[in-house]
Amino acid sequence: MTQDRIFPGIALMIGFCIVAPLIDVASKLASQAVPVGTVTLGRYLVQGVLMAPFVLALRLRVGLSGRVLWFSLARAAVSVLATYCFIAAVQVMPIADALAIAFVEPFVILFIGHFVLGEEVGPRRLWASVVGFIGALFVIQPSFTKFGTVALFPLGTALCFALYILLTRRLSRDVHPVTMQLHTAVFGALICLPLLLIGGVLGSEEVRLTAPEGIFWLWCACVGIASTVSHMSMSYALKFAPSATLAPLHYFEMITATLFGYLVFGDFPNALTWLGVAIITGSGLYLVHRERVNAAARQAPESGCVLAAEAAPDR
């Protein structure tokens, strides 16, 4: 991987970390007067409108069939759940607190990979995951006391987004990332719409279709715009630079999320939340380190070097 390709990847990943918290800011602003379900639907409608011209301009294949179709539907479904859970959380919680809890997603991926998919994961990474979950509890506990069960919603986001990442990895073999974003937008909207109509009939406060009014049209649109820009930025960052290089940069999002939360809403994490963030970040960075060590060991020649061989076991 040449340096001239890594630097654009890093720049795009930093761009993701700057733009992604704007999704949360716009969601929090919109959900003050618009049902969470409607804000979620708006995200996919705007994303579909933005992605369609790119698919046409690039002349990408849109049709799906067989297992790819079902994987795409599943990806859209977990994306809808992840989005709904997080918007519901930031509706009442500080953005930084909700994001800190959702940052257990890499640990969830590791657990799913090990216990469900049978991937080999050493005890070092398993213990790092346990420590990361403990860090999340430092954030959840005061939030649960103040906000109730809504403090658990970011854990739902973490679980659903972990499944989203695993499905994305599978689909990336067969589907262009731009087309994949369009599919998610279309299927996400098709999933949301009937659920909102049913929720309206049942009298649900948050799962119903309600047209925004005034400035809230703009906030709902901004959710979709920021989602599309940030996710495409990350997708193309991964084309330029390896994930092991970019993964540590993702934690920069905590800083930008805290800054935006403070500037727009006056929210600032307390000491216990910062302790939890430090534990989660430290554990996450350790996982990245172990991934690099194991990747280096796998790539070493079989005639190899003793140091690489010693680094291979994930103890």
Give a quick precis of the structure:
The protein has 315 residues and is mainly α. The chain is 77% helix and 0% strand.
Account of the protein in words:
This protein has 13 helices and no strands. Helix content is 77%, strand content 0%. It has one domain (3-311). The chain is mainly alpha-helical and 315 residues long.
Task: Sum up the structure in keywords.
315 residues, globular, disordered C terminus
Determine the N-to-C terminus distance. Answer: 29 Å
Helix content class? over 70%
Mean pLDDT: 86
- Structural class call reads mainly alpha
Report the count of strand segments: 0
Rg (CA only): 20 Å
Domain module tally: 1
**Shape descriptor:** globular
How is the topology of this model organized?
Blueprint: H1 3-30, H2 36-57, H3 66-90, H4 95-102, H5 105-115, H6 123-147, H7 153-171, H8 177-202, H9 215-240, H10 243-246, H11 252-265, H12 271-299, H13 306-311
Helix pairs in contact: 1-9, 1-11, 2-3, 2-8, 2-9, 3-7, 3-8, 4-6, 4-7, 4-11, 5-6, 5-7, 6-12
